[in-house]
Amino acid sequence: GSVGLMALALRRGVPRVILFRMILNILVDVLAGALPIVGDIFDLAYKSNRRNLELIRQHETPGSKATGWDYAIATLGVSLAILSIIVPLVAVFYFGLNYGPELLEHLRLR
Fold first, then answer.
1. Which H or E run contains 4?
2. Model's pTM, two decimal places?
3. Distances in Å between the alpha carbon of 82 and those of 32, 74, 86, 88?
4. 8 A C-beta contact, residue 52 and residue 9
5. Average pLDDT over residues 1-8
6. How far apart are CA 65 and CA 53, in angstroms?
């Protein structure tokens, strides 16, 4: 499935930003599909392999270029990935510094 489509895209010379979009499609499918019940409903509507095949068909011709929309989606994906790392780290440091000593004292008094 997905790996085969990625290999096909590489053989056909699809632009890198399109390959990245394909990876994002797969990640969205995997992450949303992992949710109980909601993921099953999501899987019925969101077909990452079909989307990726369509991307390959649109960009397989030699010299085809990625559109601004392709770059926007790729940029959004990278931004969300970075935020998913930064936000939890900031929360841990914030709560650790502000509430950590009180929590440790509370646990020690138990």
1. helix 2-11
2. 0.69
3. 18, 12, 6, 11
4. yes
5. 90
6. 16
> Looking at the chain, how many residues does it have?
110
Instruction: Give the tens place of pLDDT for each residue, 54-95.
Output: 999 998 877 788 889 888 988 888 898 899 899 999 998 888
- DSSP letter, residue 25: H
Distance in angstroms (rounded) separating the CA atoms of residues 66 and 33: 28
On whether the CB atoms of residues 83 and 34 are closer than 8 A, the answer is no
Token pair of 8 as six digits? 């096909």
For 32-51, what is each residue's pLDDT tens digit? Answer: 888 899 888 988 899 999 99
Cβ(33)–Cβ(42) below 8 Å: yes
What is the DSSP secondary-structure string of 35-92? STTHHHHHHHH--HHHHHHHHHHHH-STT----HHHHHHHHHHHHHHHHHHHHHHHHH
70 contacts: CB under 8 Å, gap ≥ 6: 15, 17, 18, 21
